[in-house]
Amino acid sequence: MSDGEARKRRAAALWQQGQEQQLRGRLDEAIALYSESIRTFPTAEAHTYRGWAYSFQGRIDEAISECKRAIAVDASFGNPYNDIGAYLMKLGRLDEAGEWFEKAKRAARYEPRHFPFMNQGRRLAQQGRVAAAVEEFTQALALLPGEPSCVQALAELRARLN
């Protein structure tokens, strides 16, 4: 195994350990592991998840910066686009958020694929654009039929239209 391949594997293991710590609510430990992963071999995943951990600490501007670093590493990874949109929504910057959800939809590598449609639907609903929001949730359900939060949101939105 080459040195580069060994570093990639080590970085992936550190990133996975960071995820485990984050799921346990140990954000500082998770951030340290993501940071070590990035120092070992920078990946879009480690940057994105470090941003996600920052967001849980209320460090939204840093979370956005981390997602932009992730995009610089691998523009095909869709998660950071969606996350930036979600962070902008938290900041009340709804118009800016929309373009990021659209970029996430077009990303070559993104799971779960329905998330940017759901987030775009939420954004549009907050703006009072109910018919457009219905379309977004309908598209999300086409990607993941029966998804409970989509079904509920769609029912609520359709009730607002009547």
SSE map:
Elements: H1 3-23, H2 27-40, H3 44-56, H4 60-73, H5 79-90, H6 94-106, H7 115-126, H8 130-143, H9 148-161
Helix pairs in contact: 1-2, 1-3, 2-3, 3-4, 3-5, 4-5, 5-6, 5-7, 6-7, 7-8, 8-9
CATH class of the largest domain: Mainly Alpha
Stretches with pLDDT under 50, minimum 5 residues:
none
Major sheet: size, sense and barrel closure?
none
Helix content: over 70%
**Shape verdict:** elongated
Q: In CATH, what is the homologous superfamily of the largest domain?
A: Tetratricopeptide repeat domain
State the end-to-end distance.
63 Å
Number of helices: 9
Q: State mean pLDDT (0 to 100 scale).
A: 96
CATH topology of the largest domain: Serine Threonine Protein Phosphatase 5, Tetratricopeptide repeat
Order of helices and strands: HHHHHHHHH
Question: How would you briefly describe this protein structure?
Answer:
By secondary structure, the chain is mainly α. It is built from 9 helices and no strands.
Give structural notes.
This protein is mainly α. The protein has two domains: 1-110, Tetratricopeptide repeat domain (Serine Threonine Protein Phosphatase 5, Tetratricopeptide repeat), CATH 1.25.40.10; 112-162, no CATH class. It is built from nine helices and no strands. α1 (3-23) packs antiparallel against α2 (27-40), α5 (79-90) packs parallel to α7 and α7 packs antiparallel against α8 (130-143). The longest helix has 21 residues, at 3-23. It starts with a helix and ends with a helix. The mean pLDDT is 96.
